[in-house]
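ARCHIVE CARD
SHELF: 3
SLOT: left
DATA:
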Amino acid sequence: MRYKIFGDKLPGLTLQLDAGESIYTQSGGMSWMTDNFQMETNVRGGMMKGLGRMLTGESLFMATYTAKVSGAEITLTSAMPGEIRALQLDGQKQYIAQKSAFLCAQPGVELSTYVTKLKTGLFGGEGFLMQRLSGTGMVFLELDGSIVEMDLAPGQRIKIDTGNIAFFESHVKYDVETVKGFTNILFGGEGLFLSVLEGPGKIWLQSLNTASFAARLTSFMPGKGG
């Protein structure tokens, strides 16, 4: 499989597959493709896993595209301004990603549900459920805004505003922390809680907070805001 990520802040991904190679994506995820693919749509992994995917922002049904000839091309595009990142999974490392991050992957990659701690789920901004990526093969993530990669040392902690976590290695500790100070809570604009990631491990942060972006857009709609 060969791939090309194109575009600037509204990127797309073109995959060129050899005969018999496959990728899967959520139902409706394909933008365009050449006329030499076989498409199969099903509840990948069974109903329970499908329902779990729905709770993390993906569709119940997943579509698998298999190339019938070498050189077949399929293109998927981003729904939000941001970046598309490729990850090569080796069967050892696992990653935890924000909701709706999954774009597509080879069949050897498993997309499942990651359940956070109760406190983290209530106040961390991502909810109880995130996406776990495991297995072997290439997976492509659709992320928001510009991406910053950090390598945290053991015990190193970074505090993050709600919604700015893109993804992180699964052994990184994810927690929440209360903002201190009455005036900070009321007027600081960060809310009551901040997410905390603690090393060791790699993390990827995104500059665009989708919830804040949507709120800004809503303020310009007729009958909203000023």
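SLOT: right
DATA:
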Amino acid sequence: MNAQLTLQLSCLAALGLALLPSGPALPPVSSHREAPFVTEHPKVDATDFYLFRSYESGRQGFVTAIANYQPLQSPYGGPNYFFMDPEALYEIHLDTNGDALEDLTFQFRFQNQFQQATLEIGPKGNTKTVPVPLLAVGPVSSATDAELNLRESYSLTVVSGDRRTGTALPVTNHADGATSFTKPLDNAGNKTIADYAAYAGQFVYDIDIPGVGQGRVFVGQRKDPFVVNLGEVFDLVNLDPVGAPDAKADVLSDANVTSLILELPIAGVVVDSSVIGGWTSASLRQARVLNPHPSGHDSASVEGGAWSQVSRLGSPLVNELVIGLPDKDRFNASEPKDDTQFLTYVTNPTVPALLEALFGVTAPTLFPRTDLVQAFLTGVDGLNVDGGTGEMLRLNTTILPRAKGAQDRLGVLANDLAGFPNGRRPGDDVVDAVLRVAMGVLLSPADAPSGQLPYTDGAFLDDSFFDDTFPYLRTPLAGSPNLEPVAAAK
């Protein structure tokens, strides 16, 4: 180890000790690339969170939680860009007793093992052994193929109680008791992986979860199920907000995402109430020292200090459309139990006023907006109230799921009580639903004169956007546009 790095590591140790009593050193960040920090660390950018009763046939006794990270993955961008961060802590939290505190936390930690694949380059008798630059040096069909230059694995831990001080136990593979699980290579294309759906299916694991029971897990790249007319929304809502629900193309139609997908037995997660709350977060170490002379794939930096939460996501579009710009960082660093500090953003929202100014529709006149308090902070009366106050997805586990084909994209607004905001399914059109709630669809016409208009961003989704079996999200788009591998030149 060179002298300069040794000095830096000494500084890191001192810095880590200095930081521990005083709280986070890294700036908190916002989801969906809204804050400067997360644009520099896309691997910990949470994009969407889902929580729903499993609607696969025969799995009604389970709930599924999906945490998506690394948004806007261009399939042709290459799998080199999208492996998960081994220096990060990815978590899915469940509140099982309605106090806006995590009671169960599922922690994912990733490990990258580069296989140092090489080729002999040069004339016979004078060759050089040279490492290859690609993650796969030939066709891949399993986790143990010699052609795989990167093997990405992860551990899964369940923590009962506080996420940092509670009882932590390893989740194990039901088949062999192993504590390490393998993540599939991203979908580089059909020449690398001929049948990606079959290949990825090998990485669905039955798991034993201490104190919870037997469930399933899958971690890997998926087609992003979210639909949104993103560019126009952020261009001063450059669309017809009461036009046709399929008037615009979904700008995420060509994007993949990395998904952490858990299926859990309801009997193991329901404790004091039939309503459970859930959210996801990602954390990084408080201090980082860069190595000016890295000598390997894992030596570019050294991390230290306590974990600092840098991403948070529960209900969709809260930080995007509810929380004001000055407080987006604070929101993402906070926990649901502290969310009353953001109450003004909920009771006096700005989006309805912006739509009124831009389009001439009438924003709701009732203040404070108690309807939005239910939608975002407490749960909806008669549906999924759990007694606590804090922003998260809330799921009433007594409401039976609807099979694919019977779900309504507007969820509860269309009398489909198994959908958003009673949790969230991949087929719920949350953009249209949130716009309608914000404009007062739950209020009387006297309080919301334009509240019954069919607000939409114009990006439509239907049953073709998700699957009817675990892991529910569709096979990711291939990086190569060729449907069939091209034969080698003769």
